[in-house]
Amino acid sequence: MDREALMQQSLAETVVVPQLSPTARRRQIREKAIAGIITLMAFTGIAALVLIIVFVAKEALALFTDAHAREEASFSKMFLPQVARQGRPPTFTWQPVSSIPKVSMIPLFIGTLKTTFVSMLVAVPLGVAGALFAAEFAPRRLREFLKPIIELLAGIPSVVLGFFALMVLATLLQDTFGFTYRLNAVVAGLGLALAIVPVIFTVAEDALTAVPRSYREASLALGATPWETAWKVVLPAAAPGILAACVLGFGRAIGETMIILMASGNAAIVSSSLGDSVRSLSATIAAEMGEVVVGSPHYSLLFFIGVELFVFTFVLNMVASVWTKKVLKRLTGGAS
Amino acid sequence: MKHATRRTVGAALTSLTGLAALLIVTMLALILLDVLRGGAGHVTWEFLSQPPSDGMMRGGIFPALYGTAALTLLMTLAVMPVGVLTAVYLHEYASPDSRLARWVRVAIVNLAGVPSIVFGLFGLGFFIHFVGGGMDRMMGYQTMHWAQPSILWASLTLAVLTLPVVIVSTEEALRAVPMDHRTASLALGATQSQTLMRVVLPGALPGILTGAVLAVSRGAGEVAPILFTGAAYFLPDLPTSLSSQFMHLGYHTYVLATQSPDIEATRPLLYATVLVLLMLTFALNLVAVVIRTRTRRRAANAH
Predict the structure, then answer these.
(1) Is residue B232's pLDDT more than 90?
(2) B residues 128-147 near A, CB within 8 Å?
(3) In chain A, which residues have their Cβ closer than 8 Å to the Cβ of B108?
(4) Distance, in angstroms, between A6 CA and closest chain B CA?
(5) Which portions of chain A are predicted below pLDDT 50?
(6) Which of A40, A243, B124, B185 is 20 to 30 A distant from B155 in Cα terms?
C-alpha cells in the first residue's frame, strides 16, 4: 500500500494516474499542505526585511510630507551650513532640542567616519594578517585553538566592549597620549576594532581556505617558499573574499552602537582631530530616542538616520556578498 | 645565498602575521583578566539573588538576571519554529534554482547585516506603534496597554535579529544529515514529511540546538534593540506579564557605566555585572562549540 502510494506519487509528475485510493489521496493532500506551510514560513525572512524597510522609512516620511517637519528639518538644514544667529559665520551644528533646532547631520557623519576610520586602521591589518597566519602558516593544532578563541571574541556583547573601552582603554590612552578629552574618536574606534576584528578574520580566513590545495602545491613545486606562495598565489586568488571581509567589517563599524555610545564622549563637534569627542549616527539614535516626542520632527529625523544606516549597510552587504561569490567562481572556474 | 635571504624574509614575514594573531588573542585575554580581576570578588550569592538598592549603589542584579532570562526565553520560543522551518524549506523542499529560495537567501544575508539599532527603530515603529497600537484599538483599551515598550515587543524584536543565526546553523545541521538516510526512509514508503519528522529533524537536532544556543547568546547580549522596546532603568518588581517592562544585564551594565553619580562607588557592582554577563555568553558559546564539534565528528565518521 505504502509502496503503491510512493510509486503513484512519483508517477503523478509525468502520467495522469486514473485512480488513487482514498488513503493515498488524503496523504497526498496532507503532504501538499505541509509543504505549503513550510514554504509560507520561508517568506518570514523576506517579510522581516521588507517590514524593516517600510516601518523605519514610514516614520521618517514626515520629513517629506509634513509641513512643520519639512521646515524644521529640511535637506538644506541637514546638509548645508546654517547661520545660527545674524552676523555669525555659517556652521554645521547638531542641536535638535534647542529653542531653534539645529539639525545638521555633518557632525554626525564626521563622527561616524572618524570612529570607523580608526577601527578599520587597526582591525583590517590585524584581521587579515591573523587570517593569513591561521590559513597558511599556523600548525594545525595552533589553528584549531586560534579559531574558537576568535569566535569567543566575536561572542563578547558590544556593551561589554563599550564598558572596557570606557573604563580601561580611555584612561590608558589618555595617560599615554595626553588626550584633552578622555572619551574620543580613538578610544571609541579601538573599542570598535575589538568588535570587527573577528568579523574580518572569519570571512578572510574562509576565503583563504577556499583556495584549492593544488594551487599551493604547484607553487611550492616550482620552488617558491611558503611565504611567496601565500603572498603571490593564495592571497591574490582570495582577494575578492578578503575585500568582502573588509567591507563587512566596515558595515559593522558604521552600524555598531553601544561601544560608540559609551566611549566616544557623544559631542557633535566638527573637527579633524581624532583626539576630540565625537557623536556618531547610530549613537545619536540610541541617546535621543528615549526622550523624543513621538511624531515630532526630531523623532522623524532619528528614523531618517536609521534609514541612512540601513541603506549604507545594505549596499555594503550586497557588495560583500557579490565579492564572496566571486572568489568561489574564480576558484572553480565558474563551475558552481 | 639568494635562497637563504628569501627564506629569512619569509620567516620574518611569517612571524609578523603570527604576531597579529597573537595580538588578537592578547586583547581577548586582557579583557578577560580585567573583568575577572575587577569582578570576581563581588559575585556572591547575595549579589545574584537581591535587587539593586540605594539608587543602584548597592545590592544585586537579580531582576536583571530574571529579565534577561525571560526575554531570551520568549525570543527563543518565537525564533526557533520560524528559523528551523525556513531552513527546512531551503534545504529539503526548495529546488536549488528556485527563485523564492534565492530571494530568501538574499534577505537573510541582508538581515544579518542590518545594524542592531535599526532593529530597535523597527521594533518601535512596527511592534509598538503599529501592532501594539492596533491591538489596543481592537481590544478597546482607553489607555495605552500594548502600544508601549514591553518584554513581548523586545523579545520579538530580538527574534527578528537572531533569525539569520538560527536559519544558517539549522541549514548547516540539515546538510550534515547523510542523504542516504532520506532515500532509505523514502524507499521504505515514508512520505516526505514523515521522513522530515522522524529521520531528518532528529538527525539534525544537535545542530539545531547549536543554533538555538548561539541565538540565545547573541540575543542575551544585545542592548541597542531593547533600549526603547522594553528595557527599564530600574524596576522594583519582576515583570509579571507580557506587557511589563523588564531589567536586563546588558542595559544594567550600560546604565551603571554611564549614568552613575559616583563611578568609583559603583565600580565593584559594575565589574561584577559585566563578569556575570560575560560568563553567561561564554558558557553558551562554549556549549555551542562543543555540540558542533561533536556533530561534525559524527558526520565525518558516518561517511
Answers:
(1) no
(2) 129-130
(3) 45
(4) 6
(5) 335-336
(6) A40
The mean pLDDT value for B184-196 works out to 94
ipTM of the complex: 0.93
B212 pLDDT exceeds 70? yes
Could you state, in order of their start, the residue ranges of all structural domains in chain B?
A: 1-42, 44-302
User: Which of B16, B19, B89 should one mutate to test binding to chain A, selecting the residue with the greatest count of A CBs within 10 A?
Assistant: B89
CB < 8 Å to A41, chain B: 81-82, 85-86, 89
Q: Hey, are the CB atoms on A227 and B117 less than 8 Å from each other?
A: no
How many cross-chain Cβ pairs, A to B, lie less than 8 Å apart? Answer: 277
Is residue A309 within 8 A of residue B115, CB to CB? The reply is: yes
- Give the pLDDT confidence score for residue A199 in this predicted structure: 95
Interface of B with A in 226-245 (CB under 8 A): 227-228
> Based on the structure, what is the number of domains in chain A?
1
Task: Give the residue among A6, A136, A89, A96 at the shortest CA–CA distance from A305.
Answer: A96
| B6 neighbors A225 (Cβ within 8 angstroms) | yes
Dist CA A105 CA B288 (whole Å): 42
Q: Is residue A141 part of a domain?
A: yes
Any domain includes A254: yes
Question: Residue A35: exposed, middle, or buried by beta-carbon count in 10 A (0-12, 13-18, 19+)?
Answer: middle
Domain that holds residue A254: 102-331
Q: Is A278 within the bounds of a domain?
A: yes
Is residue B3 pLDDT above 80, yes or no? no
CATH number of B44-302: 1.10.3720.10
Please tell me the predicted confidence (pLDDT) of residue A238. 92
Burial class (CB in 10 A: 0-12, 13-18, 19+), A40: exposed
Q: Has residue A143 been placed in a domain?
A: yes
Nearest CA-CA distance, residue A83 and chain B, Å: 31
- Residue A259 sits in a domain whose CATH number is 1.10.3720.10
